[in-house]
Amino acid sequence: xxxxxxxxxxxxxxxxxxxxxxxxxxxxxxxxxxxxxxxxxxxxxxxxxxxxxxxxxxxxxxxxxxxxxxxxxxxxxxxxxxxxxxxxxxxxxxxxxxxxxxxxxxxxxxxxxxxxxxxxxxxxxxxxxxxxxxxxxxxxxxxxxxxxxxxxxxxxxxxxxxxxxxxxxxxxxxxxxxxxxxxxxxxxxxxxxxxxxxxxxxxxxxxxxxxxxxxxxxxxxxxxxxxxxxxxxxxxxxxxxxxxxxxxxxxxxxxxxxxxxxxxxxxxxxxxxxxxxxxxxxxxxxxxxxxxxxxxxxxxxxxxxxxxxxxxxxxxxxxxxxxxxxxxxxxxxxxxxxxxxxxxxxx
Length: 347
Hints:
Number of strands: 12
Strand content: 5-15%
Radius of gyration: 20 Å
Strand order of the largest sheet: 2-1-3-4
Structural class: alpha/beta
Largest sheet: 4 strands, parallel
Helix content: 40-55%
């Protein structure tokens, strides 16, 4: 890695928490958003990690709730001319890459992702240039510029299968940006994987000893873990997978209690899928002390009702995602490569 850049030492300023709205204000903004969606010929797509009231609104208005790539794919297929992306900035960029003809709006362009921030393009270019013999695979949680540098883009749901495929071809891998997911993939496949040392600030805070103690309190509970979590947490899991895979695991596991180690925003859709099961938050570094995010991304929390209404009403530089056309074309190549590969896998 570039000797002058260490993503693990980077400190990301947390955004202020949105002001709490009264019940009357929530009702007002919900009605306003529904009106603006129709007026703008827009559809709303929301990530599993946004707050429940945002997910509910997306569902009520004919939008979708899913992971980042499925959000973009849904938007590309939907006839609406405008997409309102409730998530973080790279998700809006991915939507624009796949739907250049559409207007992509976000509640705020200040909603970032520590994985994206921790992999700046100049430093990543230098890292790749230092290892020209390696195939570059980047996670979807990256900027359009980093995607354009890559040979492949990948999601957590097919990461193991893709790296297994590349390993079978004798290829050595650069993996970016999440080191935990990279190490998980390397362990599952045995491939030669060189990891960029980024991390998700949410998943990085799950703590092994605290989870072991929690398992002792709930001995009959299954543990569901996103692979962006540290290896020691993954090793305690009964199921490991992407957001959608964890929801499926919740449905398929026989356990009546589930300890879930990912952003607590997922609980809304997961509880819908398993209404009779008890969902428990896995402990973070905040147990009995202080925590930076307490299992909820602070940037995802910026997607409030007022911000969504403002984005739909005003658009413009504060809300519209724009991607340079040459950069978009470059990023589309590894994205399409991944989509073509995913289509070959069993459902």
